[in-house]
Amino acid sequence: MLTREELKAVHNNIITIMENRVMQMTGCNRQTANLVANEILDLDRDADKLLNEKEAD
Fold it and tell me: Which residue from 12, 23, 41, 45 has the highest number of Cβ atoms inside 10 Å of its Cβ?
């Protein structure tokens, strides 16, 4: 679970938290973790867009 302290420690940068967690889970480097985190964020944005389009129909 995300805490205020964790978020403050990285100056409210959620991508850094995502990278750190991906690296902890997989043992990959920061560059790979960044690619994974950005892909997840893109998927989330795309899903929101699709769901909002469907609701508008």
Answer: 23
pLDDT tens for residues 18-49? 999 999 999 999 999 999 999 999 999 999 99
Contact 19, 34 (CB under 8 A): yes
Neighbours of 17 (CB within 10 A): 16
- Report yes or no: 7 and 14 within 8 Å, Cβ to Cβ: yes
The pTM of the full predicted model, rounded to 2 decimals, is 0.80
Query: What count of Cα atoms within 13 Å lies in the side-chain half-sphere of residue 15?
Result: 12
What is the number of other CB atoms lying within 10 angstroms of the CB of residue 36? 18
